[in-house]
Structures are given as C-alpha cells and as structure tokens.
Model the fold of this input.
Amino acid sequence: MDERKTRNTATTNGLTRRTALKGLGAAAGAAAIGTQAAPGFVRYAQAQSSEPIKIGFQAHRTGIGAAYGRWYERTTEAAVRLINEAGGINGRPIELIVEDDGTDPRRGAEVVERFATQHRVDVVFGTLFSHVVMGSAPRAGELKMPYFCVSEGHHVASGVLNRYIFQPGITDVKSQVISMAPWVAENLGKKVTMIFPDYAFGHDHRDFFSEAIAAQGGEALELIAIPPTESSFTRYFPRIPSETEVIYHVMVGPGVLTFVSEMGQFYGANRPQIFGFIDSLEAVDLASPGLEFLEGTYFWEGFPRYAMPEATEYDTFFREQVGVNADGASIDDPQDISTYSHMFGCWETLYIIKRAMEASGYASATDADKAGLIEAVEAMTEFPEGFEHPQGRKTFDGKTHQCFGHQYISVVENSRLNVVHKTSIEDGLYEPEVDYTTQSL
Done:
C-alpha cells in the first residue's frame, strides 16, 4: 500500500474519511434506486452494473494550458478512484477516457466529436481555458452531449452557449471580481490599470472588473490587452498611467515569470499596489528567482494554495487524495507546484455528475437519459461543504447553469500566500442573464 493510501486510514470522530465517502456514495445510490418503484428497474440496474459510465475528460495536455491540464487530470483520477471504490454511479464504475485538445478551440470541437461518435461517452467534462470552451460548446449542443466545463469564464452564465453546457463546480469571473472589488477599492486604491490576456477569459476581467470598480467610485484608467503567447512585456509598461494606484494583472501562459520579472525591473521599489489573479502563477513556485518583486502584493485565490491554520478536514482529505502537501506542491516532488485554486473544480464537478445521475436514474447514453440528467442538475440549488465539496459551500442557479461560492484574497509574505480576506457567497451574486431551462432538449 502506498503512502497516500496509508494516510486514508486517519480517523475523524471514530470514522475514517474513506468510510465517510463510502457512506455518502451508498446513501446517494440507494436514494436514486429507491425513486424507481418498478422492481424490473432494479433488476435492470443490477444487470448493467458491470457496464461502465463513460466520462470523456477533455484535457489540456499540451499547449498553454498544459500545467493546468496535468493537475486537472491528476485530480480527476483521484476523484474517479474514490467514487469507484465507493460503488461507482448507480452501481456502475466510471471509465475515464482522456483526449488532449492542445488548449486549442478547433481541436476542442474535434475532441467533443470523437467523444460522442467514437468513444460514445455519457458526458464530457474538464475544459478550463475559455476559448476552448467557446470552441467546443456549440458542437456539444449539436450532439446533445452534456458538457461540464471547469473554467472561470462568464460564457455559461452569460447565455451565449446552450442548455447542454454547465459550470457547477467553480465560480465565474463576474462573480469573483464583483465580490472582491469592494475590498480592493477600500484597501488598495480606486485608480486601476488592468493587464490581461487578449481572449475571452481576459475580456471577462476587463469588462466586469471595470464595471465593479466603477461601482465602488473607482475607474479603470487603462486597459492593456496582451496576446497569451507573448514572451516579452517591457514595451507594454509605459502605457500604465502615472496616477495608477493599483495594477490589476491576470496574465497566463509560459511567459508569466518574465512578466513579473520585467514589471519589477520597470518599477523597482517605487510601485503602485498590485492585485493579481493566481492564474498568473498557478503551478509556479513563489520562491522562484525573479518573483521577489511580488512580496507584499495581493492575489485572488479560489482555494488557498497554502494550508491555512483553520483548514477543514475536507481540505486536508482533498490534499491527501490528490497528493499535495501543505505548501501546495506535490508530495512526491516539492518542485511540482499544483494548480490548487482551480483543480478542486474537477473533483467537485465529478461528484455533481454522480449526484445528478443517481437522482435521475441515469442508465444509458440515450437522448432521454441525457435529458433527465440535465434536468436533474438544473433542479439542484446548493452544494454543502464536505468531502465532495472541499473548497466550501456553494449555491447553484439551475437557470444559468452556474454556481456561486467563496473567494479568497491573499498577500505574498516570505514567498508564500497568506489569506487576508474571504468573501461571502452573497458578495458574488448577480442578476441572471439567461434561463437555459426554456430551451428545448
């Protein structure tokens, strides 16, 4: 037995955490079968128990999202293992089928096509980068394929996609920024220059934070869009107005270390306040040479990378299962830094899929069963904090297909992130922009 499995035997209130998850899975499965009155259904479910539930994992194994993709896959495999050990879904094991989309929108659509026509999966899930979601989602809708993204873009809740697309396990940019803008305005400043990647995810930050800071009596002085594959950034910094009080950055991709280093060289010790999204430095060691400039700057985190003193047993269990230490690095290789602020979304989304399949009595990849699955997700309203949802409690809007949860603001101190503020769910709520339930299936 390996080290991670040995740690599973740690007890909580007399029960192992593994036992707790098994109990949750068994209860959910019994409830799902219990809703089916006909004995023939039970016999059918038992007869089909050896047939797996096929889940297509659309992975960013290559391209600018590769670091995220690797940790998304590792998290997904851990959750699948636990679900299968607890009895699977409706008594059937999950079979995970992985395809690399290259973090490319056109390849993303091709992957969805292969999942539907070649692999004949039951659902597709896992996509992070918003331009890949935007390229893949229309094809998923055409194929009537339930598609669960683990992104942050406002694409789902905005209504531009279709009824087959969900984002139930991670919050979107609009919710994130409106919940944090009051703290930024009060503690860092109101005159902001924004630096963001020039694609859908960055555009969401541009649009929603500009509105959110304006609502706090502030102003976005300059909006600097940078191609996500850019490798040098010095030429952009002179565009930052001298009256800037806060630089808001959300850069991603292989050039983030260069971005921070060059910004440090440009400003030296005389800099504005800096607020960034940890997207810029996911999978990056904060003690890396060149990042000294970040000391005393602030970041959004979805799930704090460094274990907090008040960490819940759910966070501790999640870290153990995905093989991450208290510093957010791989237990096996401390130089391998996780994408902790995002990858929990894969874990939580899989448990939502499980819950919906059991609630709907999902049996096969027919249009009728897929429609029942979609309606079951739409009927959900809340996900309580627990082993299935270690990041924290969330609410869910079945009309917009989007969840709402807590956000964290952390400060860099001694090359680590320490949480200074946690938002409420209510801080990030906004008026619905779509009702997907009115669309046909």
